[in-house]
Prior knowledge:
Elements (H helix, E strand, L loop, with lengths): L9 E3 L1 H4 L5 E7 L9 H15 L7 E5 L3 H13 L2 E7 L4 H9 L3 E5 L4 H15 L4 E2 L7 H18 L6 E5 L4 H13 L4 E7 L28 E5 L1 H15 L5 H14 L5 E7 L17
Parallel strand pairs: 2-10, 3-4, 3-6, 4-5, 7-8, 7-10, 8-9
Antiparallel strand pairs: 1-2
Helix pairs in contact: 2-3, 2-6, 6-7, 8-9
Amino acid sequence: MVDLIGRTPLVRLRSFERETPGVELYAKAEWQNPGGSVKDRAAYRMILDGEAAGTLRPGLTIVDATSGNTGIAYAMVGAARGYRVKLCLPENASPERKLILRAFGVELVLTDPLEGTDGAIREVRRMVAADPDRYFYPDQYSNDSNWRAHFDTTGPEIIEQTGGRITHFVAGLGTSGTFVGTSRALRRFNPGVRCYSFQPDSPFHGLEGLKHMATAMVPRIYDPTLADEDLAVSTEDAYALLRRLAREEGLLVGISAGAALAATLAVARRLTAGVVVTVFPDGAEKYFSESFWTADA
């Protein structure tokens, strides 16, 4: 099963290229990973590196804070490798994510929705401090294996899939692992590649999995010097583009993919030529209970 992680397709967004003449637009289809999201890459790497370092051993429980996708990846890989998994996540995580996690047999600790993932982080740290010998705590927000997974896989895949023609890269900031690792790989290949991060435009937003860095606990692995520019995306724009992706491209993707497209279009509209690549982190199956799908119907 874990051999299916990575090597996801690069999808061309032709209908949106009509708005960006001369610019090619592509997205990594990360929902094609077996756990349904880009987080499979980092979770698998963190677990493997924990085993190699001896910090993850039989009998320990994998524990971490998550908004959902990394937790699902932990649950999937943990089940495949024989580990129990316990996760702290905000109570307002989508019902679908909670159902998937429970299907994998995960023990859930639901935290204050008003505190977002920061509240989940504080709770998991309290649990580990109280009983350190019980847990393997990868800490996806501080673990260098997170960004290195993308340095070793996502970045090289994009280079290969574009034939080395990529000129601009766009990715969101949650743990920041996807942006940091992929940008470092692309810059090593070609220092001229322009890299853009994006985040919600407000601390109160509906972009599940993304962090408003000015008001959130900033991940240790985040390197703000990597971005040529950091963009702000509104929840409303992300929702609108999410619906357009379904109806104009036939792509049922998640909320952060709508935000990624908003940021990508903001970059591409400034250009007269280029190859712009972004990451669509997950699919729509975890969000079908949300009302925004029919907001403009």
